[in-house]
Amino acid sequence: MPRVKRAPATKERKKKIIKQAKGAFGKRKNVYRRAKETVQRALAFAYTGRKLKKRTFRQLWTVRINAALKDYDLSYSKFIGALKKSNIAIDRKILAELAVEDKNAFAAVVEQSKAAN
Could you tell me the domains of the chain? Predict the structure, then answer.
């Protein structure tokens, strides 16, 4: 059997990890074993962060909608229930945007939901 030289492949793999660890402190950026640990941990946090971002934004939209509804003496839960009853299919992201940017349009949506109740 011919002899297999794996040095180039190993060097490329290690270079890839070291490049990903750029910005880490101390040995974590240039010692392969430490850099590998750092990168694995960072990737795990990144994955979790992508999931948490969705949760965080939904909470933000809820808070914004609820704050805008205080002017109409309406609670968030009653408003969402009224929207469902009146078959108005606007998601929370758009509702929050309307509440902040376009108060007239938000007022119209609130009045429509109240009318269906």
Answer: 7-116 (1.10.1900.20)
